[in-house]
Give the backbone structure.
Amino acid sequence: MRIESHHKPENLSDRIALGFTKLLRFIADTFFKKKYGHRAVVLETVAAVPGMVGGMLLHLKSLRRIQDDKGWIKTLLDEAENERMHLMTFINIAKPNVLERFLIILAQFIFIILYLIIYLISPRTAHRIVGYFEEEAVISYSQYLDEIENGKIKNVKAPKVAIDYWNLPLNSTLKDVIKVIREDEAGHRDVNHSYANILSKKSDPNEEQLQN
């Protein structure tokens, strides 16, 4: 798995997804600048929404049509839980203030409604948006690592919640945590781009592996 990669837009749906993502990236960069820990607190709140929304809608679809979901529901719910644990980790690192806690509530309220509408209209676009979100997340965490390695951000001890969740060594640091979170985001990126491809009537890579 490549840590950094980019899916080149292939159609209008992809271009809309990328444009939406770049807009949110601009807002995040403007508001947080290089406060990576505080940025992560707010953005991981948003990142935990798509998997839960997609999993819920696919669960209901599977019930309505009495059809197997091919493992998509569990994958998306696992993604939502993983992103939630990212948030729990950064709560201990950044310690958000009152304003940031308000932004968490506001961002979640707005995004859950917006993403629900997008998924109902076009699941393909919804998954592509998440794929592009995760591309940006990987870039942000790489920049976060650079700041730590250059001594601009203190490489503090890893929170206990992170050590327990990722089974990290007891002497792990923030740098170790950022690395495993970045790998998580790269995995979510690849999964969601793959799901968008499948919904674009391209072959399912999981089914191809089973056939070979």
Q: What stands out?
A: The chain has a mean pLDDT of 87. The helical segments are 12-32, 36-65, 72-94, 98-121, 123-149, 160-166, 174-199, 205-211. The chain is about 80% helix and 0% strand.
